[in-house]
Amino acid sequence: MEPASTNRSPASNIETASGDEDSLALFQVRGISKRFGPTRALVDVSLSVQVGEVLALIGENGAGKSTLLKTLSGAHFADAGEMFIGGQSYRPKGPSDARQRGVAMIYQELNLAPDLSVEDNILLGQKGTGGGLLMRSRQRDVVRQALDSVGLEHLDPQSVVGDQSVATQQLIEIARALAANAKIILFDEPTSSLPQKDVARLFEIVRGLQASGIGIIYISHFLEEVREVADTYSVLRDGHNVGCGRIDEISDDQIVSLMVGRDVNDLYPHVPHTPGLAWVQAEGIMGTPYPQNVSLSLRRGEIFGIAGLVGAGRTELVRSLFALDHLDAGIVTVDGTIVPHKVRARMNAGFGLLSENRKTEGLAQDLSLTENITMGSLENYTELGLINLVKRQRVASDLMTKMEVKAHSSSQLVSELSGGNQQKVAIARILHQQAEILLMDEPTKGIDVGTKAEIYRIMGTLAAEGKTIVFVSSYLPELLSVCDRIGVMNRGELREVRDVADWTEETVMATAIAIDDTTNEE
Amino acid sequence: MADANPNWIKRLFTSQLGPVFALVVIVVFFSIAESILASGVFTSTRNLRVIMSSAALIAVPALGMTIIIIAAGIDLSAGTTLTLCGTVFALQLQNSPVPASDPAFVGTMLWALLLTVLTGCACGFLNGLLISATRVVPFIVTLGTMTIFLGIGQIIAGESTVYAPKENIPQWLSLCFTGSQPDKYLIPGVLIPTSVIIAVVLAIAVGLLLRYTVFGRNVFAIGSSESTARLCGINVPVMTVAVYTLAGFFVAIGGLLYFADVKNGNPTDGTGKELEIIAAVVLGGGSLTGGRGSILGTIVGALIITVIRNGCTLLSIPNTYTHIIIGCIIIAAVIVDQLRHGSPEWFFRLLPAREGR
User: Fold this and answer.
1) Domains of chain B, first to last
2) Is ipTM over 0.85?
3) A358 inside domain
4) Is B232 helix (H, G, I), strand (E, B) or coil?
C-alpha cells in the first residue's frame, strides 16, 4: 500500500546536461501574460518541463494556477509570451488544437460524457475516422491499449462512464489523453475528490506516464502529495512566478512562505477554548444506506472532528443532523428537547450546515454577497412586511468585515470571489443564522494555505464563544491540530470517539479502514 | 467570468437599462420609418394609447410569468389558463339572471370576478403542486396542463365561443380596455387607458414584492440555486406552489382584461399566448435558467413586442413578416443578454486581439 519512496522518477537520470536545460525542454513557456479586464491574472510567467518530468504548480487560490493551465491547454489565449513543444512554436487556437499538438488537460471537474460508453468517451474528438465513419476495429485496439496503460485492464470499454467511480472516470480521462498521443498532461487538482487508496493508484499511473516520457504539470494544494509525485516545483503568487527549482531542495515552510509572501510560522493557529457541558445528543441515527445507527453527544465550546474515508458516511451524518436528507430512524435533542426532522426546526434549534459543495450547494453563485449571507433568514429585517434593505446591507457588510472577506462591496456577485473568500461568505451566512452548532463539511477543501489558517482561527474563536463545531475532513493533520475530540467513521458507523490526544494519524487511519470480523474472510 | 469582458462592451450591456435602450431604438426607428413611408400616425397620442393598452394585455400575465421564470420555472399553460379564465367570466355574465343595469347585478359580478380569479389561482396551484410533488420539470408539467386547461375550457364553453349579451356587460368593464378613445376611460380626465393603469399598479406591487419581501428574495434564492435555498431552510415545495398560484392570479386578471377587450370567451384563443408572455419576460432580461429577471424589463419587453406589431401594421407589413421580425428580435435580445454575461466565449476571444491592433 505504502508507495516506496525509493521508486523515484526517471527524470533525475535524464537530466544530465543540466547546464543547458532549455534545449532539452519538452515543453517551454516564456513570459506568458494574461489579463481579464483590469485584473492581471498572469504576469510574465515562465516554466519548462523536461521529458518524463513532473512539475508541481503551487500557489494560493487565485494565484493564477488554473488560468495558467487553461492558457497552456488552449482554453485561454495568452496576451503575451511564447510557448514551445520540443523546440517548435506552440500557439493553440483552442483545446482541440492543443490536444492535437499533444497537450491534454485533466480538469478537476471531469470532462466526460456520462451517458456514453468508455470507448466512445475515449474516442471523442479523435480524428481517426475514414470518410466520417468510425474505424471501429482499429480504434478498439487504441482504446484497449490506453485503458491498459492506466491500469484499467478489467474495465469493459462498452460500459457506461456514468456508472464508474470518480477515480475510474479520472483514469478514463487520462486514457483518453493517451489515446490522443498526449506528450504533455496537465492535472488540475486531480486528488481533491479522490479517496486515499485511489490517490495511491493515481500516483502509480503518473509514475508510469513519466517512465514513458510524458511531461506532467500538476496542481495540488497538498504539499505532502507534491513531494511524493513531483520532481520540480514552480510557485505562483498573484500571477507572478515567485520561485522554482527541485522539490527536494526546498522545505515545506519555505514553499508556504513563497506562496503567501510572508512567513507562516503557524499553519494551525490555536485559539484557547475549553469544552463545556454536553448539550446536543443524537441517538440511533439511521439513513439509507448511511449513517448506520450513529449516536453521539456534543459539548458546548468544542470542535468535534469527524474522520473517515470518502464515502464512509460523514457527509450523510452531518446532513441528517441538519435534517436535509431523509432519515429512517433516530432522534436529535438539544438541551434535552427533541428537535423535529425538519431543516427549519433544526435551524431554529441552532444548527447550521456548511456544505461540502461550495459551488453548487453552499452558495448561490449568481447572487450578491448580501443575498447569500442573509438568505433564508430575512425575518429580522422586515418592517410591516417589507425588508429594510439598508439594514440588511449593513449587517452583511459587518459580517464580511468580521470574516475578513476580500471583496469590492457586499453587492458583488459571489462567483467573482476566490474559493477561500467564498468559503468565508458561506461561514458568514451560518453566523448570520445565529447558529450555535456549526456542521462544517470539508470547510478547507480546495482552499489555499493562508485562508485555511484563517478558517482554523475562526473555528477556534467560535468555540471560545461557546459554539459547537462539527468538523468533517479528509485531511488528518488539520483534524489532529484543530479538534478537541475526533470520531472516526467507517461504513456509515461512528466507530470510535476519543480525545484528540489519544489519536495519531496511524490509529485514525487504522480505524477508518478497519474491516469487520464478519467480512474479513475474503 | 464577468471580468473577461472588455470595458466598452461591459459598459454597453451591463446596465439593467439594456431593454429600455432597445425599446427606444425600436420606437425611434418606427417613428422615422412610418413618418416617411406612411401617414405619420405612429407617434400620435391616439396610437400611443393603443400601443400601451395592447401591451398591458401581455404585461399583466407576464408579471406572474416573471416571478415563475426568476424561480427557474416556466408556465406553458399561461395562454390557455388566460382564456379559460375569460371563458369562466363570460359564462357567468351570459347566465346572469339580471341585466347590468339592475342593482342586483353587483352580486353576479362579484361572484363572477371571484370565480375567475379562483380559476386562475387553481390552475397555478395545480401546476405548482404537480411540479413539487412529482419533480417532473415545469416545462413538461405545464405542457400537459396547457392542453388540459384548453380541454376544460372547451367543455364548459360547449365547444364554442361564449358571448355575453350586451346588456349583461356593465359599462365600466368595457372601459377597462378601450385603448384609443380618451373620453371612454374609467377615470375621467386621466388620459391613460384604464388597462394601463391596472397594469402599472400591479407591476409596482410585484416589483415591491420581489425586491422588498421575504417571499420575493426567496424566489430569487430558489431560482439561483435551489439546493442552496434548501440549505438555508427555505421550504422549496411550498414556495413553488405559492409562486405558480400567484402567477395564476395575474393570468386571471389578464383574462379579465382580455374579456374587456374582445367581450367574449373563446377557450382556444389562448393557444400561443403563453409564448408571447414568455417572450416579454425574456426580452426584459429574464433568464430561463432562473435567478434573473425584472418587472421593469418585462413591461419593456411587452412594449417591444407591441410596438413592433403596431409599427409593422402601420407600415403595411404583412402579419407573416411581423412574426419573423419578432422572432429575430427575441433571439437577438437573448444574444445581447448573453454578451452581458460574458458568453459566448469565442466572441470575447476575438476582441482583445482586435483591440491590440
Assistant:
1) 25-340 (1.10.3470)
2) no
3) no
4) coil
In chain A, the residue whose alpha carbon lies closest to the alpha carbon of B292 is A366
Write out the three cell numbers for B78: 399561461
What CA–CA distances, in Å, run from B136 to A37, A493, A518, B79, B131?
A: 41, 34, 43, 20, 6
Q: Please report whether residue A20 resides in a domain.
A: no
Q: How large a percentage of chain B has pLDDT more than 70?
A: 88
Of residues A342, A339, A350, A343, the one with CA closest to residue A462: A350
In chain A, the number of structural domains is: 3
**Site from A321, A346, A357, A378 to mutate, B interface, most B CB atoms within 10 angstroms:** A378
Burial label, B232 (beta-carbon count in 10 A; 0-12, 13-18, 19+): buried
Helix, strand counts (H, E) of chain A: 18, 24
Each residue's pLDDT tens digit, B320-344: 898 899 899 888 888 877 777 667 7
Residue given cell 537520470 in the structure block:
A13
- CATH code, domain carrying A125: 3.40.50.300
Provide the pLDDT confidence category of residue B213 given band limits of 50, 70 and 90.
Answer: very high
Mutant choice from B228, B234, B292, B346 vs A, greatest count of A C-beta within 10 A: B228
Q: Is B82 within 8 Å of B255 (Cβ atoms)?
A: yes
Residue A154 corresponds to which amino acid? H
CA A427 from chain centre, in angstroms, equals 18
Question: Could you give the strand order of the β-sheet that contains A232-237, starting from the edge strand earlier in sequence?
Answer: A103-106, A184-188, A215-219, A54-59, A232-237, A240-246
Please write the tens of the pLDDT for every residue from A7-26. Answer: 434 444 333 334 444 556 89
Q: Which domain holds residue A153?
A: 25-260
Contact B3 A39 (CB under 8 A): yes
